[in-house]
Each structure stands twice: as structure tokens, then as C-alpha cells.
Design goal:
This protein is α/β, with parallel strands linked by helices and 291 residues long. 48% of the residues lie in helices and 13% in strands. The chain is globular and about 50 Å long.
């Protein structure tokens, strides 16, 4: 009996090791060459080109830097996003401005931010904003093992749930915009949508701020349909510019959307892929709905 038990145990240990190796082998098939995300900004209100892995379609990995569907439809929408590495007094005023204008945004938080400001994170959720994952220690993810990537993400998610009672929304932003094909595949498998950006400003050094006028001018110069700008909650320039950004863009006919709209684009692409496999897929669905 002991021998049988030992054999069964050995089998499951071997099976577990095999599964782990398969998982590792699966990810080793994806390039881990670092991409330092950057943009070639345009002034004709068209989407900019971006840095991405050669031959990779970002949306295949639920990774986005603008809303393709909105862009194609000339839908005048902007998605406000704020990175929250730490707090230095601007976030409450940013939330005040958003509430005053009845505009929603997404805040990408780190574990230290959540630990030090659980009430602010609660307020974000209570006022209808989304809260995404910006990792625990803000590492360059291509330099991390798969295990460490998962730990960075899970610790932040679990800390938010524990300290606020709210579940983290399924969106993340890679620190410094450093990513690889392997990184975005791991994140996709964890259930995350990786949100890059389509406008960034040198606003993250609180001691070297560009000024509110500069920030507003960037929006005026580079806006386009489906744009997802990156702002920083620590930035006094962004905080001061926010009311004018909102009023200026609304005067131009823009609305401010939620990044959950990117999931509509995702679902549409999946449907298109299904129909390419089965040309009658949409027809079948219509028949079922009719019944």
C-alpha cells in the first residue's frame, strides 16, 4: 500500500513539474526583447505611430495605446488616465475637478500608493472611476521573471482588495512603458488589458514641472479621436491644467470615455475572427436571437 501511495505521489509530483515546464516553455516561445514604448506625435490630429515588437499586433494581446474603433468611426472621445506611483497632495484636487465636470477616468495605482492612501482609492471607486494595476515596486517588467511579474501584479491587486474592499479593474499599465511580447502575453493570461498611451508629457518630476499652459497646449496640438493620454497624479501642472483640458476638449466636441470601451473593440475583433472561421457565424447568432 505504501509503495502504491509513493508511486501515486511521485506521479503527481512529476505531472506538476511537467505542467510547470510546459508553462515555462510556452512563455519561452514569446520574445522578451524590451520595447521602450514611444510615440511619433502628429499635429494633424491623426494617431501617432508607436514602438512595438516587430510583427506583433498589439490587440492580439489585449494591448492598446488608442481606441481603434473610435478612431475609425471619428468618434470624438478621449480616455483620461492617471499614473499613481505615490501621493503628494494633488490627487484629491484631481478628483474634485473630475467630479465637478462629471468626467470619469482610470487611475493606475502601485501597492505603496494603496497602502498609504486606501481612502483615496475608495473615493476613486465610489465616484465611478476605474482603478488599474501599476505593479508593486514599479519594475521594468521585461527584466522580471514570469513568477516575479505575477507577484508584482497579484500583490497590488490583493492589497487593494484587502484595504479597500474593492476589486481591481482588469487594466494595467507597465512601468516606464517597458514591455515585451512575453510580458503582454503573461499579463493577458492573468486577465489584464495592457493600456499604453497616445500622449505623454514630461510631468512626472514634481520638482521640474512644465506648467499648466504647456499641458493644455499639448492636448490642443496632438488630440485625435480615441486618444488615451497619460497624466500623473503627482503633477501639479496636470492638476492645474485639468479643468481647462476638459472644457477645451468639450468645446471641440469631445467627450471623455471609460477604457471599458476598449473591451467592445476586443469583442468586435473576436467576433470578426470567428466569422472568418465560420462565415455563417453571424447568421446562426441571428437565428438564435430571433428565437
Amino acid at each position: 500500500m505504501k509503495r502504491v501511495t509513493s508511486l501515486v505521489l511521485a506521479f503527481f509530483v512529476a505531472l506538476s513539474a511537467f505542467c510547470m515546464n510546459v508553462k515555462a516553455k510556452d512563455y519561452s516561445d514569446y520574445s522578451n526583447k524590451t520595447v521602450n514604448f514611444g510615440l511619433n506625435l502628429r499635429t494633424d490630429h491623426k494617431k501617432p505611430d508607436c514602438e512595438k515588437p516587430k510583427g506583433v499586433k498589439l490587440s492580439d494581446y489585449n494591448t492598446y495605446y488608442y481606441n481603434k474603433k473610435a478612431y475609425k468611426a471619428d468618434d470624438k472621445v478621449i480616455y483620461l488616465t492617471f499614473d499613481c506611483g505615490y501621493e503628494n497632495g494633488n490627487t484629491p484636487k484631481i478628483l474634485d475637478a473630475l467630479k465637478e465636470a462629471d468626467v470619469k477616468a482610470i487611475f493606475f495605482v502601485t501597492t505603496p500608493f494603496v497602502k498609504e492612501n486606501p481612502d483615496l482609492v475608495k473615493r476613486m471607486k465610489e465616484e465611478g472611476h476605474l482603478v488599474g494595476n501599476h505593479t508593486t515596486n514599479h519594475p521594468r517588467l521585461p527584466e522580471c521573471s514570469v513568477k516575479k511579474i505575477k507577484k508584482e501584479m497579484n500583490t497590488c491587486k490583493e492589497t487593494m482588495e484587502e484595504l479597500t474592499g474593492y476589486t481591481m479593474d482588469p487594466f494595467m499599465r507597465p512601468p516606464e512603458g517597458a514591455y515585451s511580447e512575453r510580458v503582454i502575453k503573461v499579463l493577458q493570461d492573468m486577465g489584464y488589458n495592457t493600456m499604453l498611451w497616445s500622449l505623454a508629457i514630461y510631468d512626472y518630476d514634481e520638482k521640474d514641472q512644465p506648467g499648466a499652459d504647456y499641458v493644455v497646449e499639448k492636448f490642443k496640438k496632438h488630440h485625435f479621436c480615441g486618444m488615451m493620454p497619460l497624466l500623473h497624479a503627482i503633477s501639479s501642472s496636470d492638476r492645474k491644467a485639468l479643468p481647462e483640458i476638459i472644457s477645451t476638449m468639450e468645446d471641440k466636441g469631445y467627450r471623455f470615455g471609460m477604457v471599458t470601451e476598449f473591451l467592445d473593440e476586443q469583442a468586435e475583433e473576436e467576433t470578426t475572427q470567428e466569422q472568418a472561421i465560420d462565415p455563417n457565424a453571424g447568421e446562426h447568432e441571428g437565428e438564435e436571437t430571433g428565437n
